[in-house]
Write a structure and sequence with these properties.
This protein has 544 residues and is mostly helical. Helix content is 66%, strand content 1%. The protein has 31 helices and two strands. It has a two-stranded antiparallel ribbon with strand order 1-2. The N and C termini lie far apart (63 Å). The N terminus is likely disordered.
């Protein structure tokens, strides 16, 4: 869907803070506003995002000014979800408003009390006229009535009418989400979340998130958000994001992913949910983890097979990249997440690819700031991994672009200085290991082809119970590895077996030969070539 005009996103600038400063309660600010004066495109997704991105500023201020244990979210009136600036949601709601809801029929079926009829008609008329001040005056009564109706009703079209009434009240009185909390909304909203109607499921996810975030900010009054409701919401978001990525039509003209990413960003504003989502998603064998699906939004541009996408790398919608990056940036204000983000989810090579191909200044800005937060939270843990992902040469390239943004330049200088210092202190094998554990290999590192390097270092792969060799084999076995990584891993395995006494036996025991035999049939000619070379060494009786 195309909008009729181009929009300009206007942002503001504010200060910066490192990730570890945030949750320790130190004051500061780091801005990632929409680019000031940047011309907006005119697709359905970009239409209206100027207002949305302006509201992100309030979220950033709250995230960076809050101390651990203090109220973390901004006031409800600055919620990213009031409203969601999405033209499909707006147009769908406008179409639904023109119809008359047969409330009298539900009264005759004893689903609506006679005393409630005037309230419903008044609210419906007020919403159509755009003046709900009388509804707001009795806000708590209306909130209770709406939740009761969602509990009783089963027809999708009538539930849609109630959802629009809820939306009217929340838009007019965003500071009073507590009216709905007092009405015990969760069973009714979870019920709507599961209705087979994409408009209803998106609105239910929005309202659930508003209630959960408000409750998380007021634990002393309402207790902790119910864990089962949180889990159902996160599972729903994960499932719908996966569907949106795999299906040509999402039922909402491509709007499901951006709306859900807005919801994820709202959740990650809160220190409570940053900690909860990280803990939940890093639990052993959590098949319902949400964060991998958020990262998959960024990974789209690495895995598309169309000729144009291979040429440009720009297959992902830039605004989807921006929304996904914003959520990850928020997450890095939880120190444990900042420390382990790449270790757990191998995100560094993905971020490098996105930043290298990005056409939008703001996408680069967020990516570099994630790296800065990772280094500020855990320099020892992350510097090596970022070096392995080739962040340092990319920072040098990005500096040459001379972005008109002093704080981005400061971020780049910070990341570059830390990584340059670390690189100078590393031996050639430590540099190789940093690349190995980044999960992305490239022949740009000359060590892969140097015989002297392998003569000196092949044995080191077997230290600590073959730890580095196990990592190399795991890259050969990865289904989502790119062609460059697979080709280099095959070459490295051949070099290792050639130069290591007993190397073939060790490699066989870990499954290297089986993995390489499968890669002989790979679609990429380079992978085939190096797989055949490595296989020749592995099966030859002349090699130990």
């Amino acid at each position: 869907m195309l909008c009729t005009c181009a929009r300009r996103a206007k942002g503001a600038r504010h200060g910066r803070a490192h990730a570890r400063q945030h949750d320790r309660g130190q004051k500061g600010g780091q801005r990632h506003d929409a680019e000031k004066g940047e011309p907006r495109g005119c697709t359905w997704l970009e239409h209206g995002l100027a207002a949305y991105e302006t509201r992100l500023l309030g979220a950033r201020t709250a995230i960076m000014s809050a101390g651990q244990g203090s109220k973390d979210a901004a006031a409800c009136s600055s919620s990213l979800l009031l409203p969601i600036e999405n033209i499909w949601l707006h147009n769908t709601g406008a179409k639904l408003r023109v119809r008359q809801t047969p409330w009298e029929g539900f009264q005759r079926a004893d689903l609506i009390k006679a005393d409630d009829m005037p309230m419903l008609r008044d609210a419906e008329r007020a919403g159509q006229q755009g003046d709900v001040s009388n509804v707001v005056a009795r806000g708590s009564d209306y909130a209770r009535l709406y939740i009761q109706l969602l509990t009783k009703l089963s027809r999708a079209d009538t539930i849609q009418s109630v959802v629009l009434l809820i939306d009217d009240l929340l838009q007019a009185a965003p500071e009073h989400v507590m009216w709905f909390l007092d009405a015990e909304p969760y069973p009714a909203l979870v019920k709507v979340l599961e209705v087979d109607d994409i408009f209803l499921s998106l609105k239910a996810a929005q309202f659930l998130t508003l209630c959960l975030c408000t409750q998380a900010d007021r634990v002393s009054s309402y207790g902790a958000p119910p864990a089962d409701v949180v889990d159902k919401l996160l599972q729903h978001i994960k499932h719908k994001l996966a569907e949106a990525a795999s299906e040509a039509q999402d039922g909402a003209e491509g709007n499901v992913a951006p709306v859900l990413l807005c919801i994820v960003d709202e959740l990650l504003r809160s220190a409570y949910f940053r900690r909860l989502i990280w803990t939940r998603d890093t639990a052993a064998q959590n098949e319902h983890a949400l964060l991998p699906k958020v990262i998959d939004v960024l990974r789209m541009s690495m895995t598309s097979n169309t000729p144009s996408s291979k040429a440009t790398g720009n297959t992902g919608v830039p605004q989807l990249h921006y929304l996904a990056l914003f959520g990850l940036w928020e997450l890095t204000f939880y120190p444990t997440a900042a420390k382990e983000l790449d270790l757990r989810f191998a995100v560094a090579p993905v971020l490098v690819h996105v930043a290298r191909k990005a056409l939008k200044h703001k996408v680069v800005r967020l990516t570099v700031s994630i790296w800065r937060n990772m280094l500020a939270a855990a320099e020892d843990a992350n510097a090596t991994r970022l070096l392995g992902a080739q962040v340092l040469p990319l920072c040098e390239t990005l500096e040459e672009r001379r972005y008109p943004d002093a704080e981005l330049q400061d971020d780049l200088a910070y990341v570059k200085s830390i990584l340059s210092m670390r690189l100078e202190q590393m031996s050639s094998y430590e540099q190789y290991k940093s690349e190995l554990y980044s999960g992305q290999l490239s022949f740009d590192n000359p060590a892969h082809m140097l015989e002297d390097f392998w003569k000196e270092n092949a044995e080191k792969l077997t230290e600590h119970n073959n730890a580095d060799l196990v990592q190399l084999v795991s890259l050969l076995q990865r289904k989502d590895a790119d062609a460059s990584t697979l080709a280099v891993a095959c070459s490295d395995m051949g070099k290792f077996v050639h130069h290591m006494e007993g190397g073939r036996r060790r490699a066989d025991a870990l499954g290297a030969k089986t993995a390489i035999m499968q890669l002989v049939e790979h679609a990429d000619d380079n992978v085939k070539y190096y797989a055949l070379q490595a296989l020749a060494v592995l099966v030859s009786t002349s090699w130990r």
